[in-house]
Amino acid sequence: xxxxxxxxxxxxxxxxxxxxxxxRMPEVRLKIITDPFMDDGWARSWGLSTAPDPAAVFSDxxxxxxxxxxxxxxxxxxxxxxxxxxxxxxxxxPIALDPxxxxxxxxxxxxxxxxxxxxxxxxxxxxxRRVKQAVASGEIGQLYLIKITARDPAPPxxxxxxxxxxxxxxxxxxxxxxxRYLSGSEVEEVYAAGTVLVDPAxxxxxxxDTAITTLRLKNGALAVIDNSRQAVYGYDQRIEAFGSKxxxxxxxxxxxxxxxxxxxxxxxxxxxxxxxxxxxxxxxxEIEEFIRAVREDRETPVxxxxxxxxxxxxxAANESLKKGEPVRIAE
Length: 331
Description:
Layout: E1 4-9, H1 13-23, E2 28-34, H2 40-45, E3 50-51, H3 55-58, E4 65-68, H4 75-84, E5 88-92, H5 99-112, E6 116-119, H6 126-137, E7 143-151, H7 158-164, H8 167-170, H9 172-183, E8 187-195, H10 200-204, E9 210-217, E10 222-228, E11 236-243, E12 246-250, E13 259-262, E14 265-268, H11 275-278, H12 280-296, H13 304-323, E15 327-328
Parallel strand pairs: 1-2, 1-4, 2-3, 4-5, 5-6, 7-10
Antiparallel strand pairs: 7-11, 8-9, 8-15, 9-10, 11-12, 13-14
Helix pairs in contact: 1-12, 4-5, 5-13, 9-13
């Protein structure tokens, strides 16, 4: 099996996670990671070569694929630079918040004939993949309804909120992608309701922290997503698909699966507290799938068009929230 040589851009929290996963993978070499604010102690502890400028990745002829973990506003231009350098690309979401920027980046990727995978890691979670299998195979019959609960354990900083694009484009965008993935259908209409109940500062920053979104799908099914920026009991991530023959549910991950039953009551562990813990398997699996696509010259499992589609749903949700009425998805 031939080794795949990678270069990475961005050594923040998610970049470190991915880099450490890659360094444990066989037949893969992470040649260099770039970041203008590199944690040199961390890099030395893993024996990583580093540079401050992404140009060190783009100009290296030995590097076959680029992993983009940099701040979101840099993604589109770095995708374009990587494509023009002839590199295959893995990029954390979002490609951009502006559909025009996304389409421009995707046009360059297509023109250069390179692969692009967007980091919607939840598609690679084994529990959610089992739900997908049950829907696609017809185990639950005709799909009627998808219900998604996604609640963070604590709200982000107001500084983050101001730069994030808002709840629908930052947080719920993962759930929009899951609706498309699980249903195998496109969203045609969105109705969103939201408010500020967790932290007034989020409202002052121009966003909401509590929302319910209803989606109408082209295959006739419906989907309902509830989101909150704060669930005091942990990271709440649940999915149900309901159909004509039954339903399938994916519940929360907990530190252990034990349940203590006594005369005092029934006690189980609370959900895991952080997304890096909850989705640890999926983060590794998505990079493994990207490397397999590069090595075997096949299509990536999450394309740039998937990134665009979920962003368009998020934009429509924002519009629906403002208008107080359903909004159809732009083509």
